[in-house]
Amino acid sequence: MIIDLKHIFVKDNSSLPIEYSLDMSDVEFMGEYPLKKPVKINGTISNKASLVRFEAQISYDFEAGCDRCGEYTVRTHTLTFDKSLAVSIEGEESDTILITPDMKLDLDELVYSEVIVNLPMKHLCSEECRGICFKCGKNLNDGDCDCPKKEIDPRLAVLADLLKENND
Ligand SMILES: [Zn+2]
Ligand SMILES: [Zn+2]
Question: What are the sequence ranges of the domains in the chain?
Fold first, then answer.
């Protein structure tokens, strides 16, 4: 959706509510398509004393297997968006100013990039997720498996062998 901002820019104390949803189900991330439901955008573009500002909340469900145990997990994430809009800028570019030279805002493009750069790097079913046993593959959140618990890290095993050799 392209938003024409001209009437906001020229009129002091005007505002435009934004309520929009965007399909991002085609976005592939770490081998999955986690944005199955449309991304929601709720906010306002307002002109206060000739300062045009776009404040919004972008929320989306991230649906994918847990990074540790693989269990299908849905988590809702909300991003806060708050930028000033300007037709041109004097001096250095700033992260808090969005330049809209033709007084048009491509909302889809904005939401797309905002969501993509903020996708979660960690997706867990719970912070306490115990993951799966590397030996038998059992989901350890369902209880312990029967594998010997004194499993040694293969790197430590190499070290242990070295130490043993030195002691022999
Ligand atoms: Zn998990
Ligand atoms: Zn096991």
Answer: 2-117, 132-168
Count Cα neighbours of 139 within 13 Å in the Cβ-side half-sphere: 13
The phi and psi torsions of 66 (rounded to 5 degrees) equal: -60, 140
- The pLDDT tens digits of the residues spanning 41-65 come to 999 999 999 899 999 999 999 999 9
CA of 144 to the centre of ligand 1 (A): 14
Q: Judge contact between 129 and 142, C-beta under 8 A.
A: no
Ligand closest to the CA atom of residue 126? 1
Which pTM value belongs to this model? 0.80
Predicted local confidence at residue 154, as pLDDT: 75
Q: From the CA of 143, how far away is ligand 2's center (Å)?
A: 10
Which ligand has an atom closest to residue 151 CA?
2
Query: With bands split at pLDDT 50, 70 and 90, how would you rate the model's confidence at 152?
Result: low
In angstroms, rounded to a whole number, what is the distance separating the alpha carbons of residues 65 and 35?
13
C-alpha 67 – ligand 2 centre gap (Å) = 18
